[in-house]
Every structure is written in structure tokens, then in C-alpha cells.
Write a structure and sequence with these properties.
The chain is an all-alpha fold. Helices cover about 45% and strands about 0% of the residues.
Length: about 70
């Protein structure tokens, strides 16, 4: 669909539908801008927020019979 075709079809709509279409277009633009402006976390941004226990890599007692 070309822009010219779209404009000619919009011009035939009654004013109440034109307003409804305008509201819909504005909501689509807001939705598009919201998804576009999402910030992605950078690597290392959580550094220092938690600590690993000293025995993190030690074998678990629950798995002794499987080892």
C-alpha cells in the first residue's frame, strides 16, 4: 500500500473514525518508542552485589553415592 492510497482512504473516513485512527496511530508510535528505548544491561553491572561461598566448587554431600 502506498502513502497516496492510504491518504486517499483516510480522507474518505468520517471525522469520528479519523479521530479513532489518530488515537490508534499515536498508541502504535508510543509502543514502538517504548520498545526502542529499552536499555540493555551492560556486562559486569551486577559486580559486587553478591558473594559466592568459599566452598562453592566443593562436591555436595547429597551426591556422594553417585561419585
Amino acid at each position: 500500500m502506498t502513502t497516496t492510497t492510504l491518504i486517499s482512504k483516510i480522507s474518505t473516513l468520517p471525522n469520528s473514525l479519523k479521530q479513532e485512527l489518530m488515537d490508534y496511530v499515536e498508541s502504535l508510535l508510543k509502543k514502538h518508542q517504548a520498545t526502542k528505548s529499552k536499555k540493555h544491561p551492560k556486562a559486569g553491572c551486577m559486580k559486587g552485589t553478591f558473594e559466592m561461598s568459599a566452598d562453592f566448587n566443593a562436591p555436595l554431600d547429597d551426591f556422594n553415592e553417585y561419585m
